[in-house]
Amino acid sequence: MTQARLMDGTATARRIVEETARKAAGVTERTGTAPCLATVLVGEDPASVTYVRMKQNRCREAGIESRHVALPASTSTEELVGTLRELSADPGVHGILLQHPVGDHVDERAAFEAIAPEKDVDGVTFASFATMSFGLPGFVSCTPGGIMRLLDEYGVDPAGKRAVVVGRSAILGKPAGMLLLARDATVTYCHSRTRDLSAAVREADIVVAAVGRPRLIRGQDIKPGAVVVDAGYNAGNVGDVDFDSAVERAALITPVPGGVGPMTIATLLEQTVTAAARQLGV
Ligand SMILES: Nc1nc2c(c(=O)[nH]1)N[C@@H](CN(C=O)c1ccc(C(=O)N[C@@H](CCC(=O)O)C(=O)O)cc1)CN2
């Protein structure tokens, strides 16, 4: 059996960022205002600091302004909600990103819901989940949106395929399954209470691993010829899929790093420019 073809998220994301930069320049030229993304980080978790910095760097490359709000780890739900409401009301801010996770003492859902839907470029609010699920115009959760784009780039049509999503988090597993369903895949969610994970994964034409458990999905569980998307972001850039064994069975596979991660940020930038264009009336 030949090895799987790699789905190159770095190259695809670079093309999206270049296209987004052209659109951002158009918005700036026509309105005199550059698209602006506000990033909000609670605490100093090193991985989150890195992710936010990556987002700011990509924004700079694309001609998107970024405004950063760094809050101490002790920030309460009320304080965070207050900050997000202020940014939501600020006409100079077109998109808002609250970096997840925010700390166990904070009600993250309450915080996400303080983001105005028209500025929810990270696709984390109930409103965005609803529009996404019904295939209506709105913003998608960035990693699932990036996954769908990558599948399209590599000619994978989910219609009629069995898709297994391992993980059910609000910003990753759940919306990934909804987007696959919206494209007519037959979707199964697996999670910590799933009885026989290997048996479920073995049925899948498309596997989306989004559970945050390093190398949980092994090659022996992959159906020969399946499409494997590794959305795991564990310490040390280790995915949820055991790449070395999975690459021997899959037809297409995303690497970590260089797969889904860059697509997440590209989607965020793309949606920020869309939000700015709508708010500025162009
Ligand atoms: N509000 C959000 N919080 C979080 C999200 C999100 O989409 N919205 N996703 C993850 C983390 N994340 C973005 O925030 C993210 C993780 C990884 C990457 C990435 O590009 N990784 C690179 C490797 C990075 C490195 O070299 O250090 C890769 O995979 O190639 C981007 C974004 C949790 N929080």
List how many beta strands DSSP finds: 9
CATH topological fold name of the largest domain: Rossmann fold
Ligands bound, unique? the ligand Nc1nc2c(c(=O)[nH]1)N[C@@H](CN(C=O)c1ccc(C(=O)N[C@@H](CCC(=O)O)C(=O)O)cc1)CN2
Average pLDDT rating: 97
CATH class of the largest domain reads: Alpha Beta
**Anisotropy-based shape:** globular
Broad structural category: alpha/beta
Q: How helix-rich are the residues, as a percent range?
A: 40-55%
Give the neighbour order of strands across the main sheet: 1-9-8-7-5-6
Low-confidence stretches: none
CATH architecture verdict of the largest domain:
3-Layer(aba) Sandwich
Strand content: 5-15%
CATH superfamily of the largest domain: NAD(P)-binding Rossmann-like Domain
Largest sheet descriptor: 6 strands, parallel
Q: What assembly state would you assign to the polypeptide chains in this entry?
A: single chain
**Treating each run of at least 4 consecutive H or I residues as one helix, how many helices?**
10
Distance between the termini: 51 Å
Element order: H for helix, E for strand: EHEHEHEHHHEHEHEEHEH
* Number of domains as seen in the coordinates: 2
Radius of gyration: 19 Å
Q: Any chance you could write out the topology, listing elements then pairs?
A:
Elements: E1 5-6, H1 9-31, E2 36-42, H2 46-61, E3 65-71, H3 77-89, E4 95-98, H4 108-113, H5 126-133, H6 142-153, E5 162-166, H7 173-182, E6 186-190, H8 197-202, E7 206-209, E8 227-230, H9 243-246, E9 252-253, H10 260-280
Parallel strand pairs: 1-9, 2-3, 2-4, 5-6, 5-7, 7-8, 8-9
Helix pairs in contact: 1-10, 2-10, 6-7, 6-10
This protein binds ligand LMY7XDAE.
